Amino acid sequence: MKTFLECIPCFMNQALKAGRIASNDENTIKQILNEVGKMVEDIPMENTPPETGMLIYQKISEISGNPDPYKKIKKKNMDEAISLLPMLEEIIDKSDDRLLTAIRFAIAGNVIDLGVNREFDIKTALNEVLTQDFAIFDYDDFKQKLAETDEILYLGDNSGEAVFDKILIREIGKPVTFVVKEKPIINDITINEAKYLGIDKIAKIISSGMEAPGTIINMCNDEFVKKFYSSKIIISKGQGNYEGLSGINVPIFFMLRAKCPVIAKDINVPIDSIILENNYKKEN
């Protein structure tokens, strides 16, 4: 997905928000905004938003001297999500379709997005998603692809969301390779958070090599790229991964909540829609 004009003020708002998290010094925050403003002026509009986001958050870390501004917030989000697991597992046990309910929970977790300039409440999102209709619902395709493969490539998104990804991985019941970011970027999951959540106990973990809030295939490491193009089914979580991968013709199932109006417009769904989309079907 390319960058739209509406993305530019969003980049500046993200810089201000992240700057305040990274530093308490007003002069430092002003310097961040000045530098990001200069960067935004030269943004190639054909770039994906995660490419620009990577440069912005690298600049924030450089100026603030804080390589992981969201560390405490990630921990808080993960612990809150963990506290909800017994309730969610009970709901799944009583569900008529365990896999679909696990997908709904995994998508609900996508609301924990600190790169979007809006507030969220995970309990509210979980309740809503149980009854919300999908704007795009390629569930039959998903089940068919699952039946045809022995292994799944699962692209993680944010750290708190990954608690609910664990539920889905267990319900899938097949070997999963779970993909994390190489270095901290916003609240996206890295190897440290994945191990904290115990994902290494139920899946193989690899890094994509990415330092951006999304997946940009020509910037990923060789191990991931080889795995990506050889996979029969890829689960891609979140908006950032959609932004980076939506134009690539491989068997990706996008699972996300369209929280951003630009992304909602690109997918052609109402804002706040929940989506399970077979990208391969769309491209073919």
Describe the structure.
With 284 residues, the chain is of the alpha/beta class. It folds into two domains: 7-64, Helicase, Ruva Protein, domain 3 (Orthogonal Bundle); 71-283, Rossmann fold (3-Layer(aba) Sandwich). It is built from 14 helices and seven strands. It has helices at 7-22, 26-41, 49-64, 71-83, 85-93, 98-108, 122-129, 139-148, 161-172, 191-196, 222-230, 238-245, 261-267, 279-283, and strands spanning 134-137, 152-155, 176-180, 204-207, 234-237, 252-257, 274-278. It has a seven-stranded mixed β-sheet, sandwiched between helices. The longest helix has 16 residues, at 7-22. The mean pLDDT is 92.
Task: Considering the chains and any ligands shown, give keywords for the structure.
alpha/beta, seven-stranded mixed beta sheet, single chain, 14 helices, Helicase, Ruva Protein, domain 3, Rossmann fold, 2 domains, globular, 284 residues
Provide the CATH architecture of the largest domain. Answer: 3-Layer(aba) Sandwich
Number of domains: 2
* Low-confidence runs of at least 5 consecutive residues: none
**CATH homologous superfamily identity of the largest domain:** Uncharacterised protein PF01937, DUF89, domain 3
CATH fold-level label of the largest domain: Rossmann fold
